[in-house]
Amino acid sequence: MFLYRINDRAELRLLEEQHAAELRAMTRRHWDYFREWMPSFSDDYSLAESRDFIRQCLERFAAGQEVPAGIWDAGEMVGVIALKSIDLINRNASLGYYLAATHQGHGLVTEACRILLDYAFEELQLNRVDILCAPGNAKSRAIPQRLGFTEEGTLREVQWLYDHYVDLIVYAMLKRDWKIESKDERGTMNAE
Question: What is the spatial distance between Cα 51 and Cα 24, in angstroms, rounded to a whole number?
Fold first, then answer.
């Protein structure tokens, strides 16, 4: 398990089964906002589905394939971020995230991405991390752009979104292009 301070109010924590009710409540509360770009939740997202999602994430975490984390601001779960599809043979992974609309514009996802990028390049010794974003999702696309990712191209009609396919833009960061920032500036990772 890890805990990492994002700022003086917010933190990044490993998702655990005990967070299922918080995850469900946050997802349901912000469903109208999330559903525009997220195909993975149903309109009646249940507590059982939330628990199953977290269990699956933790199974992948135990297998070294994912680092799933919740984003908390002032004690409230406001988002999820994950380093996923970790491939230690080819030294790459993908970074995905979502954040409640009410907590956007404060740098929470950008800083959470920095933390996981430091972890990916320093701890896991990965060479590449990518982020996939729909062309019309300007807020999501702003994150890799802000962090200096390279836009590599577009995967055409690769994601099914309820009743149609959407393209995804591929952004990538290579280890040699990432500056590992001082952990003292943002906090420390604590093994528990």
Answer: 9
